[in-house]
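Would you kindly consider the sequence and fold I have copied below?
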Amino acid sequence: MFTGIVEEIGTVVAIGGAPGSTPADQDLRLSIRGPTVTSDARLGDSIAVGGLCLTVTELPGDGTFSADVMPESLRRSALRDLRPGSPVNLERAARADSRLGGHIVQGHVDGVGTLLSRTPGPRWDELRFECPADLAHYIVSKGSIAVAGVSLTVSEMGDTGFGVSLIPTTLAETTLGTLVVGDRVNLEVDVIAKYVERLLDGKKRP
């Protein structure tokens, strides 16, 4: 589990096929530089990369780590947009004794959103994203959503999109500060909303 509080902006070092895979398998191995998140990492640990929970498979000891990305994750996320040199938000899994600074984030990306507009303010930016129609009903004004792994509060909601306001810290310390119109981002809606929907759906059944 994660909280959506980004610890550092990492850099994609290399992208290739996972060991033993073929081009037809369409899975990837990412190598990412992240000195902070690798400082105490061990093989098998979970690290959120752009909001996607990945398992550490290699730790060379030089501040980088590798992780394999399965086809299902590639289909649901924007990881295929990454190239060597791309910046990515990184967060280690939350500890049970730590503060929950953002909200409960599983690292299970629900879909991909697209930045529609960016309006600079005196000390903040207002961003509006388009989101898949099947995710829109999980998003509510003043609710929480993870965008590229960043825990954000929804400032306004429409039928096919939503808006957020980014404070200076978020602009400076996450990849959201450099997004341009048309960029795609990983989205994870509030898991509590999905559980509530499932429970209510069960009550409707005979």
About this structure: The CA atoms of residues 15 and 134 lie 30 Å apart. The domain at 8-92 is CATH 2.40.30.20 (Elongation Factor Tu (Ef-tu); domain 3).
